[in-house]
Amino acid sequence: QGHWVTFMRKYARSCLVFSIPNGTHIRSHAGRAKVKREGLHSGFPDNGVLWSTDRAFPEWKDGTGDPSDSQIETLNWMHANGYHVAIVRTPWGCIDWLRSIGAPIPEIRP
Predict the structure, then answer these.
(1) Least confident among 11-15, 30-34, 88-92, 99-103
(2) In whole angstroms, what is the distance from residue 70 CA to residue 110 CA?
């Protein structure tokens, strides 16, 4: 994901690409409790992509990973309320999906 964000920031300059911390990297119970108090929402997607006319939220999974129940609930709510959401498994698959929904990403392949 980190390399994808860096790539997108370099080549898709018409998009604002950002990561959404999910708190799983926090080891202590006190630290996790703090981010929950600050508004952490379980199941929110890994990244956000904004452009002048829309927005999208990809959730990254490896080739065999499945979304958790909280991710399914959150992604279904977002979709029902007009947000573009998707489970993505590869960087190019994510880019192709974003282009298909209108994100202004130029055609660049390594």
Answers:
(1) 30-34
(2) 35
Reduced to 3 states, what is the DSSP secondary structure of residue 47?
A: strand
What is 50-66 written as a DSSP string?
A: EETTEEEEEEE--SS--
Q: Amino acid identity of 79?
A: H
Q: What is the pTM of this model?
A: 0.85
Helix/strand number for the chain, H first, E second: 4, 4
Q: Which two tokens stand for residue 78?
A: 């977002």
The tokens for 12 are 């898709």
At a CB cut-off of 8 Å and minimum separation 6, what does 80 contact? none
User: For residues 48 and 72, what is the distance between their CA atoms, to the nearest angstrom?
Assistant: 17
